[in-house]
Amino acid sequence: GESVGLHLPTLSVQEGDNSIINCAYSNSASDYFIWYKQESGKGPQFIIDIRSNMDKRQGQRVTVLLNKTVKHLSLQIAATQPGDSAVYFCAENNRGNTPLVFGKGTRLSVIA
Amino acid sequence: SAVISQKPSRDICQRGTSLTIQCQVDSQVTMMFWYRQQPGQSLTLIATANQGSEATYESGFVIDKFPISRPNLTFSTLTVSNMSPEDSSIYLCSGKQGGGAEAFFGQGTRLTVV
């Protein structure tokens, strides 16, 4: 169903600092998790993913942590840049042919 | 990942009319989906577009209001019918290659109904 109409939570960070964006997922059967970045006027773009048999995965400047015990995901962005300003969504899925389910999203604002 | 071309990118429509949004993928994909995104909110799944058969709709969305076609593995359309201002939103199509795979998105259609 639809989310209640509330503004997205916002995280403001200084340029060069590290950012941590958190997400709680709902389905304990989910075994695949993705972080997306959505800039204004664009569709979501893939950043990084992680499978349930891992608890950490690193990419370029980004790290995703998965805690299955408490159903929690986080996205860490190192040395945050102005170009990182966007809305970030986590999404969960399982191995079946099912659509992704998106979390509520967080707006990241980078202060130069 | 594949690239999805979605059009129109935006439109302003009169209430009571219908708009058809098209998505073309540059390669065959197993699954295609349609999402709606209200301003400042997350993505809500409207339906799964099934190739050669009727779409599978989520709770709160019905075929008469949002008819969907998927004639082949690279193309899908979503029609927003008998529009009202409450239908003003961003509509996004998405493709996915089976379970446990990332989904990729078109750039979205920003619809305003006046």
Describe this structure in words.
The complex is a heterodimer of chains A (112) and B (114). Chain A is 0% helix and 50% strand. Chain A has 112 residues and is mainly beta. Chain B is built from no helices and eleven strands. In chain B, strands 2, 4, 5, 6, 9, 10 and 11 form a seven-stranded mixed beta sheet that branches. In chain B, strand 5 and strand 6 (56-57) form a beta hairpin. The chains are: A mainly beta (112), B mainly beta (114).
Brief overview:
The complex is a heterodimer of chains A (112) and B (114). Chain A has no helices and ten strands.
CA distance, first residue to last residue of chain A? 38 Å
SSE ordering of chain A: EEEEEEEEEE
Using the CA coordinates, give the radius of gyration of chain B: 13 Å
Number of strands of chain B: 11
Shape of chain B: globular
Largest interface: A-B, 33 and 32 residues
Count helical runs of chain A: 0
**Based on CA inertia axes, which overall geometry of chain A fits?**
globular
Major sheet of chain B: 7 strands, mixed
Strand content of chain B: over 45%
Counted by DSSP, the helix tally of chain B is: 0
H/E series of chain B: EEEEEEEEEEE
Give the overall average pLDDT of chain A: 90
Largest sheet of chain A: 6 strands, mixed
User: What portion of the residues of chain A fall into strands of 2 or more residues?
Assistant: over 45%
Rg of chain A, rounded, reads 14 Å
List segments of chain A where confidence is low: pLDDT < 50 over at least 5 consecutive residues: 1-6
**Helix proportion of residues of chain B, in percent?**
under 10%
Q: Helix proportion of residues of chain A, in percent? A: under 10%
Structural class of chain B: mainly beta
Keywords for this structure?
heterodimer; A: 112 residues; mainly beta; four-stranded antiparallel β-sheet; 0% helix; disordered N terminus; B: 114 residues; seven-stranded mixed β-sheet; 11 strands; 51% strand
